[in-house]
UniProtKB/TrEMBL annotation:
Family matches, as PANTHER family: ANTITOXIN HIGA1 (PTHR43236), BLL0069 PROTEIN (PTHR43236:SF2)
Domain of life, per lineage: Bacteria
One matching Pfam family: Peptidase_M78
Residue stretches making up the IrrE N-terminal-like domain: 60-162
Name by which UniProt lists this protein: IrrE N-terminal-like domain-containing protein
The species this protein was found in: Kistimonas scapharcae
Length: 168
């Protein structure tokens, strides 16, 4: 039990995650390019993307990552904007958690553990960096669909981002 809790301890603050995501965007040379070119980032990290056709066993899986083989798996049936967030989330696991686990599977309705929260924060910072997001939000007067089009994400992802940044 104590081992389990330790393994799932939160390791990064929001500020640290923001700094790490910004650094990654700069290193890959894609800062201020939107929608964020996630494939370039994934290749920079030495990983490849494979889409999978969900079957009965995997239809609840949105994405996964195999660190040993350095492959990120993405559900082929999901809408492109949903896939964007999933890919960014998996990049979060690659960047933040690859020392802790050999594989990671993300279920649609999976528990929101500290690691999942960290990966979500990382994804949001990659796709919708805070300062840029604030500016875009003001430009479009907080219209989620219009803001979402800038970043290639779902309106729902924009609403969550705006909530966290206390813009709503
Ligand atoms: Zn995850």
């Amino acid at each position: 039990m104590s081992v389990q809790i330790q393994a799932e301890e939160q390791r990064y603050s929001r500020q640290q995650i923001r700094d790490l995501a910004t650094e990654l965007l700069i290193n890959v040379g894609v800062r201020e390019q939107f929608p964020t070119p996630l494939e370039e980032i994934i290749h920079y990290l030495g990983y490849t993307i494979e889409e999978f056709e969900p079957d009965d066993d995997t239809d609840r899986v949105s994405g996964a990552v195999n660190h040993r083989q350095q492959i990120i798996y993405i559900n082929h049936q999901d809408a492109p904007r949903r896939q964007m967030f999933t890919l960014a989330h998996e990049i979060g696991h690659v960047f933040l958690h690859r020392e802790q686990e050999a594989n990671h599977i993300d279920y649609r309705d999976g528990a929101m553990t500290p690691r999942e929260q960290e990966a979500n924060h990382f994804a949001a910072e990659l796709l919708m960096p805070e300062n840029h997001f604030r500016h875009t939000w003001m430009t479009w007067e907080g219209e989620p669909e219009l803001v979402a089009a800038t970043y290639g994400v779902s309106a729902e992802a924009v609403r969550v981002r705006a909530d966290i940044l206390k813009l709503t």
